[in-house]
Every structure is written in C-alpha cells, then in structure tokens.
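W.,

You were right to be curious about this one. When I first looked at the sequence I had no strong expectations either way, so I just let the prediction run and decided to look at it fresh. Below is the sequence, 354 residues in total, followed by the output.
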Amino acid sequence: MILKHIYLQNFRSYSKSPFTFDPRFTVIIGPNATGKTNLVEAITVLSRGKSFRTSKEHQLIAFETEVTHISGTIEEDGEEETLEVRISLSQQGMVQKKYLVNGVPKRRSGLAGKLPTVLFTPLDLVLVSGQPGDKRRFLDEVLEQTDPDYATALLTYTKALRQRNALLEVVQKSGRRDEERFSYWDNLLITNGQILTQKREVFINYINQSERKLFPFSLLYDKSLMSHERLLQYKDAEVGAGMTLVGPQRDDVLIHSLHPVSKELEDVKYFCSRGQQRLITLELKQLQIFYLQEQLGTQPLLVLDDIFSELDSDHIKEVIQLTNDFQTIITTTHKEFLSDTGKKAAVIELKDSV
C-alpha cells in the first residue's frame, strides 16, 4: 500500500495545500512551527479517522472556517482508492464527521486497514513512562487499524459507557435508580467490553511471543474484566464515584524486565534509564509494524515525526534500516539529516508560512 497524494483544505495551518509523496522515502524539512506535525496529523486522521494529538476535533478546523477536508489517494497492486475525511461545525457548534472511500460514505471503522500507518513521535516514550491511558491508546491505535470488529466494539463501548456514567450521576444526585435503563447499557458494555479484552489479550500475547532484539521485556495485561458479577460488586461504589469502575477503560499494561539488583521482574518505569526506555519504545513500535503487516497482508506506512532528536546514532541507524522495507515519511528541522541517512529521498520543504 502506497500513499500517493494528500490534499488539505482548512486543516489547522493549511488553507489549500496538495502534497505528493515518493513511494519509498519522503523527507519533510522545515523550521519549527511551519506545519510539519500538522501534515503528519492529517495523514493519521486520513488513516484512522481521528487525531493522535487531540480529542477536540473542532481544533482541526482552521481558524475562522467551518469545514476541514482531507483527501488522499492510495495505491496497491496498481489499483487506486480515494479516502476522505470531512469535519464540520454546525450552527449550534456541534462537530459533524464524514468518512468516504471512493466517494461512498462509511463509518469510521470502514477506514480500518485502508491506509495502515505506524507513527513514531518523541511523545511515544509515554508508552513506557506514562499512565495507563497511554498504554490503552497504543492498543487501540493498533487494533482499530487491523480489526473492524474491534473498532466497532470500541465505538459502541465508548458511547454506552458515556450513557451509563450519566445515569450514575443522576442516581448520585437524586437517589433514584432506573434498573431497566441500567440493564440495557450494562448488556452493551458487557458484550462489547469482552470483545475489547479478548482482542487486546491476543495482541499482547503476540508481543510477548515475538523476538525482542533491542531490550528484554515482557508485558503483563492488568485487565479490568466487565461482567454482571463485577458490576454488581461495585454497584454502591459506582454511585459514590459517579462513574463506572470496571471494564476495559480501566485496563493497564505493565512492562516488566529483570531488575539488575533484585533479579526479579519489575516495572521498567521505575528502574530503567531513559535510554533503555527509548529502546523498549522503539521495540514496541517495530512490533506494531510487523503485526499490522501480518494481519493486513500489506505494508504499513511509516511516519517518523522528529524522532531523531530522541535517539543516538546507533538507533537512528536501526530505524533507517527499518525504512528500507516500507514507504516512509520523515519530518526534520535539519537538511543535514538527508546526507546522514545515505538514502535518496523526495523532499518537501516547508517555509515559515504554509
């Protein structure tokens, strides 16, 4: 799969901007604040239907405009497809989204696998050092692209969770509980939550069973099971908290390695150096690439956003070697980077205004 073109209209800092990408290697060069990460964000929105930077989608629409439009052309085995994402603001300020494949409207899950993308950014270190939500976002990022059933289950679960939490707030304020309404949302959460848990576990097992070349570690899935029994167990506590206290939204993934002193498996977040945490992060992203390739039967697009400021020369070489097998788009502030890679590249040079 190759991303050939992308066109941005009223997307963040871009008004009307077309870009063409080399089928192998494209470098986007420009000073800070020229729109490099905005362009990377647009590619991931086209791939996944949502931003990796914000959940407030109105922020993607350029200032003083009401509609943003991203369209792209992809090619595989000589066949082209057009992907589109349109995000608009209604007169009431509500965000409305449309996803199209070859002009045909789709649900967001309909984009799954069309443009599989693996994104590396300096923020990826939170996979090791961050909070449980950072680990869950990583799982969602991988599984939404490889499994439409997962994407649908996650969407349904998220909506049902929002509704159930609203009911709990009503109970908290009024002391009255509508068991029939709770039963409806409970059943949706249980059905879809179990799908999320099962598919997350499969991916985590894949990582644990795969070879790790850069640093030895294993993942422990600390899952919060969703069932009628657990909802009943936490029934009173949930009213006090005003939110649902069990389920995949409370999952965590612990990353363990052998502690050099205790000789026990311990959380790398608390004893590994920043350099070692970078290696674990890089390994996780590489395994993400291989998983997407295996599941979809196509090569994902690699997008590397200014990651070389976080890596030493040896690991820069490791990443560059990885790009030999995949279409790659890289952003950097330094033209010198081109000669350091030793690769021929198409260049997109961004100026102070885009």
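Here's what jumped out at me. The chain is about 40% helix and 25% strand. And, maybe more interesting for your project: The domain at 1-116+300-354 is CATH 3.40.50.300 (Rossmann fold).

Coffee later to discuss?

I.
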